[in-house]
Design brief:
mainly alpha, 0% strand
Length: 360
């Protein structure tokens, strides 16, 4: 007498090996190794220098310092992306948050600790307000959020640049920068490093985002809307109101990152200092790679930060330009998009069943 067999489910290890994210990262690293070899460099030497320069004793502090801004922007863009919305105005919300924090720190007469708190809140308020403006353009005027958020970013960056070069410029300086914040109006450093309390603030924001996403009804609404907007609307989710909420949270996080940036070295608003490193686009890449999942966004942001910081060490070791790390980031996203479009064979169907389908 034979016992009935139950269909076997793939193990966690098998699912991990089939993961589109793992495939994309590995494929990008393989292509990067071929590019290094084509340039006459040893791929093993290059990758060793890359990760030792970012995760080794001499580079970890720089990675965590840069990762504060990258992770903050990744979270800011992952919040609306979880609900199927893409906020391309991160740069504008970032610089307005930094500018508001600078003006608050310079001109609001408060004791240093209160001035720091007020500057952080001002940065969040500025970023939030500007992101809500982009959301209103979609919900009330019919302008797609992709267009409104992106186009609103340019006047914000230009306005901040004008203020740093003319009305708020430090007297006697040849650089487009504001005056230095008063003594004590800065985020405390964590030990003898460049890492500040800003890293802990961003980590706390990541924890709050993970809790809301997994444990609250609001998080469920956002995830449901991102997976199936039509079903969410049928279930009673108010899409315009949800858009306003998500963009407000996104802009507040972006403004917070800008405020942390000016409350850390060099303790002033410097034109281009917040936008030139590309925190917004690196953060968006990390959020896309992780499908806006909270934990995955944190890991992806740390991975891309390590690539950026270690690029200089790789360049010194192999004489290959560090822009290769940007190529690796782009390849990860390209392979991920391609992998997600490849249809999978339904489980439990053998080759005989597939052959019959093909014969039909």
């Amino acid at each position: 007498m034979t016992t009935p067999t139950t269909p076997t489910t793939p193990s966690a290890r098998t699912e991990l090996l089939r993961s589109p994210v793992l495939f994309s990262v590995v494929a990008a690293l393989v292509i990067g190794a071929l590019l290094l070899a084509g340039a006459g460099a040893d791929p093993l030497t290059g990758y060793t220098a890359l990760f030792s320069g970012s995760l080794g004793p001499d580079g970890l502090a720089a990675t965590l310092t840069t990762g504060t801004s990258v992770l903050g922007m990744a979270l800011a863009l992952a919040v609306p992306l979880r609900g199927g919305l893409i906020n391309l105005g991160g740069d504008g919300q970032l610089v307005l948050g930094g500018l508001a924090a600078t003006v608050t720190g310079l001109y609001v007469p408060l004791p240093a600790p209160l001035a720091v708190a007020a500057a952080l809140l001002a940065g969040m308020a500025a970023g939030c307000a500007y992101a809500v403006l982009a959301a209103v353009c979609e919900t009330r005027l019919g302008v797609p959020l992709l267009v409104s958020s992106l186009l609103l970013s340019y006047p914000a960056v230009s306005f901040a640049s004008y203020l740093a070069r003319y009305p708020l410029k430090e007297p006697g300086s040849s650089l487009p920068q504001t005056r230095r914040l008063p003594e004590g109006v800065a985020l405390p450093a964590l030990g003898p490093t460049t890492i500040t309390v800003g890293l802990l603030i961003v980590a706390a924001a990541a924890g709050v985002h993970a809790f809301v996403d997994a444990r609250t009804s609001s998080g469920y609404e956002v995830r449901m809307t991102g997976l199936n907007p039509r079903f969410a609307a049928y279930a009673g989710v108010d899409r315009p109101r949800l858009t306003l909420r998500l963009m407000a949270a996104s802009g507040a996080l972006a403004g917070l990152v800008g405020a942390i940036g000016v409350l850390s070295f060099p303790y002033r608003f410097l034109d281009g200092a917040l936008t030139a490193p590309g925190y917004t686009w690196t953060g968006l890449t990390a959020a896309l790679l992780a499908a806006a999942a909270p934990l995955g966004t944190v890991l992806a942001a740390f991975f891309f930060t390590a690539l950026q910081v270690g690029g200089l060490s790789m360049e010194r070791a192999t004489e290959v330009p560090r822009e290769l790390t940007q190529v690796l980031q782009a390849l990860v996203v390209v392979f991920l998009a391609a992998r997600l479009r490849i249809p999978r064979r339904p489980p439990g169907r053998g080759t005989r069943g597939a052959g019959k389908e093909a014969a039909r």
